[in-house]
Amino acid sequence: MRILDAKMAIWPHLTGRRGGSDVYSGAMAVIFDPLRGRVRPEASHPDAAIIDVLTKTYSDADWAVLTGAGMSTDSGVPDYRGPDSPPRNPMTIQTFLSHPDQRARYWARSWMGWPRMRSTQPNQAHLALAELSLAGIITQNVDGLHQAAAEAVAADRATEAGAPAPSPVIDLHGSLDRVICLSNGHLFDRDWVQRRLSELNPDFAEAVGIDPIDVETAPDGDVELEDTAGFAVLDCPECGGLLKPDVVYFGDSVPAARVQAANRIADEAAGLVVLGSSLAVLSGLRFVRAAAKEGKPVVIVTDGPTRGDEFADFRSISRVADFVTAWAAR
């Protein structure tokens, strides 16, 4: 067993229990789509003109970057709201806490999806962004691909004297490679948890007739799987508490320390670049609103509508990988 050390806030109010018994809701919560009715805008400027602003009017170090699921689609990780995305009903924190059956449902789907998610590699957009010396990257993604790209770029630069340090990365919504105990905050390596779940459920994949390597995962790493009855869930081996991936579910809150770290990056930057995010959730949109309120330039690059389009000074509808590659080549 590998326990990860962390100093972080615990959420005792998220027990989901009243009077000693679990509150149960058999139905998944309905996630309201804040982009409903919004249409794809026109590009405000050619990409070359926007990149001139990024590189000539300002330097790379002046920019904070906020990334979303569109950053990882070329790595095989689907997004929730792209033009070709199927309807999805992600797990909410309220549903996860409501009943053991719901936790078994989540963990069965997550256990099935982890091998595919773990095998994903950074794409050209991640690698190009890692080449830039930015004020920092704030990502809404939980796939760890920005860190993997930074490691790859650092390895390539290992022989270069005076090579710049990687841009700091804040995982705003957490990371799938960690699992947290909701009772006492113990952290565990996701691979260790995967092995323990496999030991507890040796025949599950064969019983449902699914090969974990061939399944399509959702952006948060689970798969569409209806029959999860009988899946055995692992509790915290330290205290018996509920285990949950160390990610922010819908309806959950971003830990205060993480928000403060992201705020520092955004506050110290001269401007904000949004890459591949629809800004549908407030945890990302708030950075755009704050930058606009302070008169900082806002650049948004994604091929669909966003919740922050009215705040954008510069708007590109190009593929994220094409835009970032061109930026890094300047």
UniProtKB/TrEMBL annotation:
Domain Deacetylase sirtuin-type: 40-330
EC number(s) on file: 2.3.1.286
Keywords noted in UniProt: NAD, Transferase
Organism: Brevibacterium permense
Record InterPro entries: DHS-like_NAD/FAD-binding_dom (IPR029035), NAD-dep_sirtuin_deacylases (IPR050134), Sirtuin (IPR003000), Sirtuin_cat_small_dom_sf (IPR026591), Ssirtuin_cat_dom (IPR026590)
One Pfam match: SIR2
Top-level class of the enzyme under EC nomenclature: transferase
Key word NAD present: yes
Gene3D superfamilies, sorted: SIR2/SIRT2 'Small Domain, TPP-binding domain
Name of this chain's protein: protein acetyllysine N-acetyltransferase
Keyword DNA-binding part of the UniProt annotation: no
